[in-house]
Write a structure and sequence with these properties.
Elements lengths: L1 H7 L3 H20 L4 H32 L4 H10 L3 H6 L6
Helix pairs in contact: 1-2, 2-3
Length: 96
């Protein structure tokens, strides 16, 4: 369900939600039959995923603040119309 939704969504926040649903299955499989080494590795995996999810949400906040939408089609139009500092905030261009 998570993978299917991630490919079909047109909204970046929904992409985040479906990605988290996808990770739930990996958490369950990782902790199944847990011994001490598996639990330790699982804890590192979860901590790294939570840190990555937090960075993703921060980026979503920046994009929403700059564009006013998280819909990919609307965002493409608004980014194309931007210039100056606001465009630099939401685009990833080669600086050198």
């Amino acid at each position: 369900m998570g993978l299917n939704g991630a490919f079909l969504t047109g909204d970046i926040f929904n992409l985040f939600v479906f990605f988290e649903i996808l990770l739930l299955a990996s958490y369950a499989l990782l902790m199944h039959g847990g011994n001490k080494a598996r639990v330790g590795a699982g804890l590192h995996y979860v901590i790294l995923n939570v840190a990555g999810s937090a960075l993703f949400l921060i980026a979503l906040g920046v994009l929403y603040g700059a564009t006013g939408t998280l819909n990919k089609a609307d965002m493409a139009q608004r980014v194309a119309e931007m210039s100056g500092d606001q465009a630099a905030l939401v685009t990833a261009e080669d600086c050198c």
